[in-house]
Amino acid sequence: MNAALLAGAVAGLGLFALVRALFPPRPGLATRLAAFDAARRRGSGQTGQTGRAGRTSPARDSVGGLRARVGRELVRFTEARGWRMTSIRADLDITDRSLETFLATKFLLPAAALLFVPVVIAYFALLGLGMSVQVPAWICVIFAVVFFFFPDLQLRQEAAARRGDFRRVVGAFLDLVSMNLAGGRGVPEALMTAANVGDGWAMRRLRDTLGNARITGRTPWQALGTLGEDLDVAELRDLAGALALVADDGAQVRKSLSARAASMRSRELSELEGKAGERSQSMLVAQLFLCGAFLVFLAYPAVIRVMGS
């Protein structure tokens, strides 16, 4: 009964997926504009990467070409259905990865795990465990599920680390802007001068954002707010809102930026103290386990002798 219900559910899901694939919904205007912008960004990225192409092996080129083709098809598939994936795009943006590579990795890793079903069956047969298909198939399915979610976990961890670094850079950036405002510069000049001080990836991102804003005629705080939304960094969005409110008053801007930098430093310090406390607690638990194991090691011969007598 359960097998019949499971088979019926799988068949119904397959028919639903087939109907959705054959008759996809018509995308709206916003979806088409997003697809057009994504295609333009992909074209500009490929143009910039042609000059950096190195000498690689034919096998690696074929694998890279397959992943690129699969990634492009998956991006078209998601854009045609209006799947925005805002959080994933923000994580990819801050880690400087492409959506095509991410989607291709999520598709190819589980597919490779499922392709190993005959290999696992042959290995079980060589070990003399029988020719059953269920156990190897379930093993490969479990590995496929793990491989499907593994890129998301890796991307989330790397994006969290990069956001932490970016927040620390934003705190230092606010101090530099405040000092430039105290020196008599205006808000746009102070922002650009502060962005030109460092050479890390976060400062380069801020510098490019402010430079593009000057070229396109946007205000610097609007550009910083857009960057905060793209990278999912709340500090940049708050900074953009504060600058938009007090952009005409240099003294108020300086006080606001100094207060924000101080609050960011205090919050970062409290987070570091919390992490240090967690690590010290974990070390204490490990030491307790070592002491318990040593006591068992010392008491084991005496207990065995008493029980033997």
TrEMBL record:
Source taxon at top rank: Bacteria
A UniProt-annotated Pfam family: T2SSF
Keyword line: Cell membrane, Membrane, Transmembrane, Transmembrane helix
Subcellular location: Cell membrane
Biased composition (Low complexity): 47-57
Keyword Transmembrane helix appears in the UniProt entry: yes
Start and end residues of each stretch annotated as Disordered: 40-65
Bilayer disposition of the protein: Multi-pass membrane protein
Transmembrane regions listed in the UniProt entry: 6-23, 107-129, 135-153, 284-304
Claim: NAD is one of the keywords in the record: no
Domain Type II secretion system protein GspF per the UniProt entry, residue ranges: 173-300
Annotated GO CC locations: plasma membrane
Name of the protein: Type II secretion system protein
Taxonomic source organism: Actinomadura rayongensis
Biological classification of the source: Bacteria, Bacillati, Actinomycetota, Actinomycetes, Streptosporangiales
